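Sanity check

After download, print the first record. It should look like this:
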Amino acid sequence: MHWKKATRTVLIILVVNLVVFLFICPPCMTTAEGLAKIWDDVLYSLLLSIGLWLGNGYISDYLDKRISWIETPLKRLLIGLVAMFGYSTFITLVISFVFLSLRHPEFTATAGWEFFVKVLNVPLIITLGITAFLTSRGFLLSWKQSAIDAEQARAEAIKFRYDALKSQLNPHFLFNSMNALTNLIYEDQEASVRFVRQLSQVYRYVLDTRDQEVVSLQEELGFLDAYIFLQKIRVEKALEIKLEPALWQVNGVVPPMSLQLLVENAIKHNIASQQQPLHICVKLENEYIAVTNQFRPKTPEDNSSGLGLETLRKRYENLTKKPVIIDQTKEHYTVKVPVLTLE
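Expected structure tokens:
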């Protein structure tokens, strides 16, 4: 809890205790003995209330950060109950003993263990109310945050799919493809037929996966292979891309068009020519797929805004706790994305 919040809570508890005692014993305000009794009772009740409320509040906040209400609600409930009641028993006995020792040492000397056990009755009832409130509050806040995260993930996924679809269907991509096809028809009719088939496969994949969060790695690799074919026809020897054969043997899923985005970024934002071809390697590294390219950025005005990669990072954050890793050196630029498994 923050100090401001804690201070506000203490003041509220103090006011509530004063009001309660004045309501229970109005005549106590008219005598010195009554005022002394009110002071003792209010001080004891205040210390007990602060200890119970703030301590249990801290326990609740701590457990909310460590144990998810959404994923393991029963575990969170049981651990919360045990922790709160255990703490409440301990703090009640400590406060009662210390308070009586300081304020009424003669009473403490004659009080037996049975008295301190009886002292627990009211605080534990209070704890039950606090626990019910904090438990309900924690569950509702977690449920609300989960709903917000799910809606945000859905909105980001829709935006990414729209951006990907718009990117693949933009006039420049179509113009470049048609221009390459026109030249290819006169040079190699067999290759031009394959070009049309690969172009059709690219468009079909984009349309078929626009509503999917993940696709099999084999599907994504097939799409990437078709995309690479189109790019190599267009730029010819200015591009060298290697797909590690072991990738095709991996059982897993990835967000659609994720690997294609990384390859496209490498082509778009790095210098490639017939004399200096751009080398890109897509390979498996443990549970990650690494896309590595030579780091030869174009002029500053051609640099990427990073929105595509940031969107991809957010999509992975909504699917897994494994991060997207970026490793940049003077010679190479690598992006590693985790291979996911369906549970």
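If your output differs, re-run the checksum step. Summary of this record's structure: The two ends are 36 Å apart (CA to CA).
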